[in-house]
Design goal:
Blueprint lengths: L8 H9 L12 H25 L8 H25 L2 H6 L10 H4 L5 H22 L5 H29 L3 H15 L10 H8 L10 H14 L21 H10 L1 H5 L6
């Protein structure tokens, strides 16, 4: 009978440094696991949208808009870093998770499309994110409250800029109005997911850690309707909602985005900057 292969020293070293728990072991603290899940949702939303907006760098309609989108992308990536740092190693969470482990909503991973669709997506998301962060600034979790209190000031600008472009394009030429209407219609089916409350989120809401998006659903609809009225645009017809992003169910677009975003850290995992 052949003998077993010799155990190399580096294998022994890796074994000693390996964590005691396996990937599928139950977390030691269920509450902490829920908080980690929630801040990953918040961080993933911001990071994926920041990556999407960075694709406009050098391609926006005019230089001023190019700079605005780049600055919004940097704001969002900064927010993502802060939220993901609460959950653990932000760099590892950003660059070494596979697509099924991401918890962002479907809206932020959608392709940019034309400029009108990008601004429609930004308008729908930033209006929601601004209202959410206003409430998260009062979270019982000190880390979440601190990040939200800083981020809400940045997102107020994101929301204002996006709403301004919705009005300018919607109340502009026939072509710009058509494109904005098309962009809103494309994004509309992803809005219901922003207000979905699952068991994990419900528990955190009860503890005062998370904000309940259902509490500002009416305010959100009113804000969207007011801007669309100013833009002389009708509200898109309700569509079958697309859900599942918080549970790792995503469109094919996210995988392509991550392949680009994660390429260098995965190809050169030992690299330092």
């Amino acid at each position: 009978m052949p003998s077993l292969p010799t155990i190399e020293k580096d294998v022994e070293r890796h074994a000693r440094n390996a964590p005691d728990g396996g990937a599928f072991d139950a977390p030691a603290d269920v509450h902490e696991a829920a908080i980690a899940d929630y801040v990953q949702r918040l961080g993933d939303d911001s990071l994926i949208l920041g990556q999407r907006l960075s694709e406009w760098c050098g391609h926006a309609p005019v230089l001023e808009v190019d700079l605005s989108l780049a600055n919004i992308a940097l704001d969002l990536i900064g927010q993502a870093t802060n939220f993901l740092s609460i959950a653990g190693d932000a760099d590892r969470l950003a660059f070494h998770r596979d697509v099924l482990d991401w918890k962002n909503c479907w809206l932020v991973e959608q392709p940019n499309g034309d400029f009108a669709r990008t601004m429609a997506r930004q308008f729908l998301f930033s209006t929601w994110q601004h209202m959410l962060l206003q409430r998260l600034a009062e979270s019982t979790h000190e880390g979440i409250a601190a990040v939200a209190a800083k981020a809400v000031k940045e997102v107020a600008y994101h929301r204002e800029l996006a709403a301004d472009w919705v009005v300018r394009l919607g109340d502009g030429t026939d072509e710009s109005a058509r494109r904005m209407a098309d962009g809103l219609e494309w994004c509309w089916r992803f809005v219901p997911e922003l207000f979905e409350v699952d068991e994990t989120l419900a528990g955190l809401i009860e503890r005062g850690v998370a904000a309940d998006p259902r509490d500002f659903a009416d305010d959100y609809r009113a804000a969207i309707a007011a801007t669309l009225a100013e833009a002389n645009l009708g509200q898109p017809a309700d569509q079958r909602p697309i859900l599942g992003g918080r549970r790792g169910h995503h469109s094919e677009h996210l995988g392509h985005l991550l392949a680009i975003m994660q390429y260098l850290p995965r190809t050169y995992p030992q690299a330092t900057w």
